[in-house]
Amino acid sequence: MVRTVWLWALCAVGCAAPFQAGVFQKDGTRYYVGDAPEGWTRQGFADNDLAFVSPDDLHTLAVNATCDGYQDASLEVLMHHLLMGFTQTQQLEQRRAPMDGRERLFGHYLARLDGVPVELGLAVLKKDGCIYDFTYVSPPGRYAEAAPALAHLLASFKTEGR
């Protein structure tokens, strides 16, 4: 049920932008995220560069870069934007950490999406005139099962310039 709501919310479409050898490229930006976690499949979602679904279809990872129309907002404001559309959000954790030579903001939340409870891991980074956001969605109480995939994605991320 959570996957269905999440897929619906992202408006599934075909994978169009190039992704090879762990590198994604679009609109003058290139970044490295490594390969999809073992057994995860790439899905195409509107408004996301990359999205992967776990083998059990319960967990989703998504990455997006916004370089056009970039607004120089704080990481906290950008995190708030990632939470738009979710209701009854409850922050479990928030921390800053280095990422690709900059500072990122990470948040762990419980929330509802169209009334369905979800657990979220969100991160946001500003670099080279772009905003990079990372979203992990899981059923409540099952966050830890695929959180290592999110950690690996965040640790491997590197921009390759504009």
Outline the fold blueprint:
Elements (H helix, E strand, L loop, with lengths): L1 H9 L8 E2 L2 E4 L2 E4 L8 E3 L6 E4 L6 E7 L8 H8 L3 E14 L2 E12 L2 E12 L2 E9 L4 H14 L1 E2 L3
Antiparallel strand pairs: 1-2, 2-3, 3-11, 4-5, 5-6, 6-10, 7-8, 8-9, 9-10
> Residue ranges: pLDDT <50 for 5 or more in a row?
1-16
Report the span from N to C terminus. 38 Å
Radius of gyration: 15 Å
CATH class identity: Alpha Beta
Shape estimate: globular
Explain what you see.
With 162 residues, this protein is an alpha+beta fold. It has a single domain, classed as 3-Layer(aba) Sandwich (Protein Transport Mog1p, Chain A), CATH 3.40.1000.10. The protein contains three helices and eleven strands; from the N terminus they run αββββββαββββαβ. It is globular. Mean pLDDT is 83; it is low at 1-16.
List keywords for this structure.
162 residues; globular; four-stranded antiparallel β-sheet; alpha+beta; 3 helices; disordered N terminus; Protein Transport Mog1p, Chain A; seven-stranded antiparallel β-sheet
